[in-house]
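Async update (no meeting this week)

Hi team, since we skipped the sync, here's where things stand on the single-chain job. The sequence we agreed to prioritize is pasted below, unchanged from the tracker. I ran it this morning and attached the output directly underneath so nobody has to dig for it. Comments welcome in thread, and please keep replies under the output.
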Amino acid sequence: MKLVSLSLIALAASQTAVAFIAKNTWKFSGNPSGGLRDVTFPFKMAGAAHKSGYYFAQQFNFQNISRVGYCGIQSRPNGTGGKSIVHAVFSTFQGNSTTQHSKCHMGADGSPAGVSCAVEFPGSYDAVYNVVVEHVQGTTWKGTAINNSTGESFHIGSWTLPSTAGGIKSNQLGFVEYYPWNSRHHGHECHDLPRTAVTMFDPYSKTPGAGTGRTNKPYESGDCVGKVAFSTEKVANGYGVQCGF
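Output:
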């Protein structure tokens, strides 16, 4: 595995380790002085069960502030008429962030700090979904989910960071999380992990000087390493991950 910065290691250690089934690192070859003004993270849930529980995500940091943001998609039970449902997420853990968007609320993952935004919409799990994080103005950022097959676009939400925040840094972590295991009241056995599958593709950016984005090979994480039928394979412009039973 490639070496990662101490800040990434500290971040990983600070998160709840139990629920993380796999992680990956991503990085751009360029490093614009003002940071990235946009990043697109593509995901595909082909092979994932149409049930709640999994979160497929990529994290990102901003210049001059300490806490991460993240974005991604989650599987959900089928909706009306048996249509598959995609749940898209766009959040920040940064204190003193604000929002006025109807799909967002204050707080992130049980903490009062930060902002969480989410939207659900019908869509095939065989499609690639681009989750786009882009600068609006000042220190306001928005998240959008785009169905690559149909071109449909869904605004996940928008939030404003503290005035010191700069652009997005050029490297961070992603993860596959089975979030029911985060609950203190939800004991778990490794052999009970439900089966899922996801493909995480290389990120890209239109920011001048960003260079080429790359997702590195995912690796197992948490307390069930070697016990959840984890596998990964290289695909064009990314990696596929499978785990569970």
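Quick observations from my side:
The longest strand covers residues 111-122.
Residues 6-14 form the longest helix (9 residues).
Reply here if anything looks off.
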